[in-house]
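Quick one, probably user error.
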């Protein structure tokens, strides 16, 4: 089989790249060893957000008496939720298949491996097939990192994939207690989900704060909410030993399945739980592709090294998405896919853009662009505008007053350099800020844009006004 481009991996980077290449007149083959949509659609972004929304709705209903909504006999049916999750994933799988077919992209299910820099063999269900191409795109994504002594067993020690399926099978009920190793995005999102279902959650994080690298003020709001929910948080702590029921020392476990020994700043501590969710990071899926055979270079951390055009050490082989390193985000992979497709087709290269991000905790956190510290490290003098949701009418009407918006701008030009939000619907609100940062808008542009009232996006307008010293609904801070 001969093609203009062969893409290995049909996740949010690969299938988007394939469609854009086909739109640009290329003959394209996409190879996928598992399911269309990749990790994001099948085991990550989409199903996790469905579960998180359901638990948030359940949590809100339990507190709805304040709004006059009185309920009795409220029950969470995990079987129905899991049925919804699997149906949603199936529907989106079919949707991607339809889009690929409509754009005349050929799909081959199997595992690809390079024989030469221009040819791959594909192990399919019916045997080995080979494909040649002028160019290739690596889009196989990433997978959970496992560490010795805490390997996944699919039952008591699990990763995010297994966590999303808890409650789906009769033998895998929602745990009464859950230990989470890793206080990053995945650990906190899933930890929040389970805590709302009544699970006793304990989070162990090696760094000195949850969500390492995220604005500390934003993280503080989320941490406060987690503690209110009864989530135990251990930062600056390292897991040392895991004992499973039936193993050494299990006689003292009682009804718990696991015993986790943790080294904390206050000394050694033993935690007990039904399951251990390990979310300590992700690694590029470069194994079994034959990259070492053809000499594709990797970085020190095992990601595929690429230049600004997405090319690897072989100029006709490109890599996109999680394979190329941080940030490991589906929308970054999709943008990479479009850029690489246009580069392959000799279209005008797109300029790099700031990548917005969102964390679906409760409350949510979202951001785009430079933090104050990052801007100052670049030698910039900045203005910072901050507006609390507690002063926003819509937030109070929703009974979700936690959090704030923060805008960082250049002191001299007033160009908006970054924005960060913690609070209700932060994931939706950040797009307006992303537009402002991407297109180099100024504080005045945002402050003078008339926002409908009462709405949550008013918080961005108010934060811009606060940065200009023109706040109406909060006291203005003295100019420095």
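Nope, works fine. Designed sequence:
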């Amino acid at each position: 089989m001969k093609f203009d481009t062969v893409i290995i991996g049909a996740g949010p980077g690969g299938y988007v790249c394939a469609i854009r290449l086909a739109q640009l007149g290329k003959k394209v083959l996409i190879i996928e060893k598992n399911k269309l949509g990749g990790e994001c659609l099948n085991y990550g972004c989409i199903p996790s957000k469905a579960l998180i929304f359901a638990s948030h709705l359940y949590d809100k209903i339990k507190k709805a008496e304040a709004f006059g909504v009185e309920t009795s006999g409220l029950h969470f049916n995990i079987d129905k939720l899991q049925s919804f999750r699997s149906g949603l994933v199936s529907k989106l799988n079919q949707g991607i298949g339809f889009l690929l077919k409509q754009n005349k992209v050929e799909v081959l299910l199997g595992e690809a491996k390079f024989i030469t820099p221009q040819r791959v063999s594909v192990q399919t269900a019916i045997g080995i097939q080979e494909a040649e191409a002028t160019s290739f795109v690596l889009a196989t994504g990433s997978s959970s990192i496992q560490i010795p002594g805490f390997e996944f067993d699919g039952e008591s020690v699990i990763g995010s994939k297994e966590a999303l399926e808890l409650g789906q099978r009769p033998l895998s009920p929602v745990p009464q207690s859950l230990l989470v190793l890793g206080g990053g995005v995945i650990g906190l999102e899933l930890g929040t989900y389970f805590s709302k279902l009544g699970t006793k959650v304990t989070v162990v994080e090696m760094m000195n704060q949850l969500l390492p690298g995220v604005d500390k003020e934003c993280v503080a709001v989320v941490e406060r909410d987690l503690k209110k929910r009864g989530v135990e948080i251990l930062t600056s702590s390292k897991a040392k030993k895991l004992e499973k029921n039936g193993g050494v020392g299990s006689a003292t476990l009682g009804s718990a399945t696991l015993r986790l020994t943790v080294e904390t700043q206050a000394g050694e501590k033993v935690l007990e739980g039904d399951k251990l969710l390990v979310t300590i990071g992700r690694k590029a899926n470069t194994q079994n592709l034959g990259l070492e055979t053809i000499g594709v270079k990797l970085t020190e951390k095992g990601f595929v090294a690429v230049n600004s055009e997405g090319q690897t050490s072989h100029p006709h082989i490109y890599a996109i998405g999680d394979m190329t390193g941080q940030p490991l985000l589906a929308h970054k992979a999709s943008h990479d896919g479009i850029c690489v497709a246009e580069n392959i087709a000799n279209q005008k290269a797109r300029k790099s853009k700031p990548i917005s991000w969102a964390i679906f905790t409760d409350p949510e956190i979202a951001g785009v662009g430079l933090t104050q510290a990052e801007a100052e490290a670049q030698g910039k003098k900045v203005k910072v505008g901050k507006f609390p949701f507690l002063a926003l009418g819509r937030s109070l009407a929703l009974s979700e007053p936690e959090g704030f918006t923060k805008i960082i701008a250049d002191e001299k030009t007033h160009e908006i350099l970054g924005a960060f939000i913690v609070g209700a619907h932060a994931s939706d609100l950040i797009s307006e800020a992303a537009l402002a940062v991407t297109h180099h808008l100024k504080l005045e542009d945002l402050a003078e844009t008339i926002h409908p009232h009462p709405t949550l996006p008013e918080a961005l307008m108010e934060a811009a006004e606060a940065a200009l010293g023109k706040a109406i609904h909060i006291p203005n801070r003295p100019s420095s």
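Confidence is low (pLDDT under 50) at residues 247-254.
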